[in-house]
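Before we proceed, please read the two lines closing this message. Let me know whether the structure tokens fit the sequence:

…
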Amino acid sequence: MPTGRANKLTGQIGEFLVCAELGRRSLIATPFSGNVPAFDVLAADEDGRTLPIQVKASNSNQWRSSAELWLRLSIAKGRQKSGGLTEITHPQLIYVFVALKPDSNSKDRFFILDKTMLQKLLAESYTAYMEERSWIRTRNPKSFDCRLWISEIEKYEDNWKLVESRLKGLPDSPI
């Protein structure tokens, strides 16, 4: 199990990799190293328009989350129940998921989507997982642990045009 230091380093590496990728796209970017609760990186274009970005880095093919961030969940008699989607703050916030390369023969991967898209994916995934189990988690009925897998977000890989269009105030391009 990774240590707190290892997790901190993974997050730091992810933030700096995102800043580097944005720089390759002629954008100025700076990380905030966990000092701003709502985002990790701020990107800016040559016209001074800025865009906050949340970065999630992982050394594996998945990222952990809590389903109660995305769904209104309750528990009665050991059975979970969904009351639909939660109202999320900052629905247009850009998320960049970074899958750090596992070895020198591979490359880091970036998956870019917004918080609304993320909520939809995680809510659908958690709902499907729980429906298979009749909404009962036998080992820990109070667990809302949910995972986002690379296979669920592959279509958003290198979707940097989302960042560029949001900075320019343009409508999002279809994936």
Observations:
- The radius of gyration is 17 Å.
- The chain has one domain: 4-168.
- Residues 80 and 154 are 29 Å apart (CA to CA).
- The chain has a mean pLDDT of 93.
